[in-house]
């Protein structure tokens, strides 16, 4: 998901937006969406539950990548990145909680692996997107990323579940 971030300014420039500050504003939408997630997280948990938050988060992130591929005007991109930030945390936060609970005896190792793969994605994503953009074009790369994110959300929603408390 983070792979497209360093390429937004170039993509916007190719689409005719020459002001670098606009690319910064668009990217700031992600942080604003994350902050809004923090405001609404308790209501989301009560309404959707963890499983549906992961499913919806992955599906909505996939949708947001498709919107990026559509190359809309920057105000729409800003709103899209705000939505992307919001739904990213719907998936990421629940996965992070589960990572800390998967192996209580090895909590440090579980969190270290979670962090490793998170930052590996941040490091490798831009390279993969860059190579893909030069070889097959940015739209197919974004489509592939969208499919992967939907798959991650659905898979996590299916397999990561808390055990039901036993009735005593």
Any key phrases for this structure?
168 residues; mainly alpha; Growth Hormone, Chain: A; 82% helix; globular
Topology:
Layout lengths: L7 H7 L5 H51 L3 H28 L5 H29 L2 H22 L9
Helix pairs in contact: 1-2, 2-3, 2-5, 3-4, 4-5
Any overview of this molecule?
The protein has 168 residues and is mostly helical. The protein has a single domain (2-158), classed as Growth Hormone, Chain: A, CATH 1.20.1250. The protein contains 5 helices and no strands. The radius of gyration is 17 Å and the shape is globular. The mean pLDDT is 92.
Q: Can you tell me the number of structural domains? A: 1
- SSE series: HHHHH
Return the CATH topology: Growth Hormone, Chain: A
Q: Count up the helices.
A: 5
Q: What low-confidence regions span 5 or more consecutive residues with pLDDT below 50?
A: none
Largest sheet: none
Radius of gyration (Å): 17 Å
Intertermini distance? 43 Å
Q: CATH architecture, please? A: Up-down Bundle
Strand content: under 5%
Class based on secondary structure composition and strand pairing = mainly alpha
Mean model confidence by pLDDT:
92
| Shape verdict | globular
CATH homology group = MFS general substrate transporter like domains
CATH class: Mainly Alpha
**Using DSSP, what is the number of strands?**
0
Share of helix, binned: over 70%
